[in-house]
Amino acid sequence: MMKMRAYSGLVYQAKINPDTPAIIDDFSAYTYSQMLSDVYCLKSALESAGITGQDRIAVISTNRYEVMLLVLCGLLGGPVVVPVNRRVAIDEMEWIVDNAAAKAIFVDSELENEISLCGRDVFQNTPVRVFSGLNANNASNDFLSWLRDFPDAAIDAEYLPSRPYLQVYTSGTSGRPKGVVLSEENCLGQLTSLLLSIDLSLAQGDSIYEGLPLFHVGGIFISLLALNIGLTLRYAQKFCPVGFESMVLAGDVQHAALVPAMLQACVSLPKNDKDSFRIKSILYGASPINSSTLTHSKDRYGCDFLQVYGMTETHSLISVMSAADHRYLFDTNKIAGSAGRAIPGSVLEIVDADGNVLPCGKAGEIRVSSQNVMCGYWQNEEATRDTLRDGFLYTGDVGYLNEEGFLFIIDRLKDIIISGGENVSSLEVESVLLGHPKVVDVAVVATPDVRWGEVVTAVVVSNDDSFSTTELIEYAKPLLGGFKTPKIVHVVDTIPRNANGKILKKVLREQFSTIGNM
To answer: What is the pLDDT of residue 499?
Structure first.
């Protein structure tokens, strides 16, 4: 008997809307019928090269059509896809490819020279196939030309829920990153839960700008959602706030998926009286958003907003702050700072250090049980046992639930600052400091202190030459109180972030831990 699959929507769209563009990237446009045909041919091409569903392949690229072909091929019974962060150093790329035992590597043309000249054994000994582009050096090695020489392959009709299709490496907080293994069952659970909880007007034929990178699960899950419901995905190799807003003004996109740092960049742009942003909705997630950025985004775009909270280990989905929830927030401010409510089909609990469930209003570690929770970490049983316990995934995030079931995230467990025996949320302090008119970006971390154990340390980006650290401290004191107010303030040009816009607090702790108090 036929079963619903995570790619069933794509097959359906190719039948009823074959000529609708599925993806438009910086190089070309591709219809739904073309995409489905290319996926079938790709599976056949890989099989002819001896690469099957039991193998892994690495892909290192910016956002483009070919990356999603590989992901969909994995869902259709092809090899497990290992997307590698395009922005990490060659050393880390090499380690991930080697750790995953990838049988082939797929790269964009801009990275081709760097890989071929680096002299690393993994890249020299593993077959490399290139996505053509503006700087392609070897047209005969072009990915699309290669796969289209093969006939359609039979898809894997047997539904094996636990069969992996994706392996995404998390940015490790210590040591090497961990490979999160995700199955089709995880993907199908995530898609179903999102479709049940989303309340945006997403119409077939609408276009959505995908700002989240495809080497992170957030970019993949938004893309899969779009393809299953008949949207046209718009990819860009690099995010440009001016370019994005030009697309919106021209009516080329009706929806967007962005990280908060991208929204912050957009609302910092000047707005002319003639600007009329014709956009229906913005989905955001991957990192916390401060109230100032969200309010300015609402005022600028006047559209619906939807927030997703999750992590790689949950196929990017734990809770959703719906468009209706955002309207309630904007009208009343009663659920400011919430990450929404648990997705359908999941159990979300707040527990203490012993695993006891805590009542509403009490803060503890967030744990979740759902169909989209990962299979485990690749070849890392110890880390898997530490994270998956008692039928739950322990997130490492600290938060609480209110009486209505809204989740509020306080901080990462590792980012809680303990100063003089008092717990301080770095996120709370960041939110207050961003309210200062001369502060455009901020990160708050703990640094060692002889007297207090740890002190609150702010790393700040300002847009005003007259800004002083003293005025920021004086601004914060009445809003935060004594022990939460930063004792140390460093002014920098930029805050380090990963590709998903998350602040690299480990880098900042290491950078400023040896610098003394003011």
So the answer is: 62
pLDDT value, residue 497: 85
Which residues in the chain are classed under CATH 3.40.50.12780? 193-375+396-413
Q: What's the pLDDT score for residue 16?
A: 96
What integer pLDDT is reported at residue 172 of this predicted model? 53
Element (DSSP H or E) covering residue 112? helix 109-117
Contacts of 117 (CB under 8 A, 6+ apart): none
Question: Residue 91: what pLDDT?
Answer: 82
The answer to whether the beta carbons of residues 460 and 288 sit under 8 Å apart is: no
Contact status, residue 447 vs residue 455, Cβ threshold 8 Å: yes
Query: Which pLDDT belongs to residue 140?
Result: 45
User: What does pTM read for this prediction?
Assistant: 0.86
Within the chain, what is the greatest distance between any pair of CA atoms? Answer: 71
Q: Which residue in 120, 179, 203 sits closest to 377, CA to CA? A: 179
Please provide the CATH number assigned to the domain covering 419-512.
3.30.300.30
Torsion sign (Cα): 15, 17, 19, 25: negative
> CB of 275 within 8 A of CB of 248?
no
Q: In this structure, which amino acid lies at residue 267?
A: V
- Of the candidates 258, 199, 255, 262, the one whose C-alpha atom is nearest the C-alpha of residue 230 is 255
Cα separations in angstroms, 436 against 262, 319, 469, 508: 20, 30, 12, 21
Write the CATH number of the domain with boundaries 8-187: 3.40.50.980
Q: What's the token pair of residue 30?
A: 């591709």
- Ranges of the chain with pLDDT below 50: 134-140, 173, 517-518
- Write the CA distances from 248 to 234, 241, 252, 298, 359, integer angstroms: 11, 11, 6, 15, 44
Type of residue numbered 282: I
Among candidate residues 432, 428, 408, 407, the one with its CA nearest the CA of residue 416: 428
Question: For residues 344 and 193, is the Cβ–Cβ distance under 8 A?
Answer: yes
CATH fold, domain 193-375+396-413, is Rossmann fold (3.40.50)
Collapsing DSSP states into helix, strand and coil, what is residue 330? helix
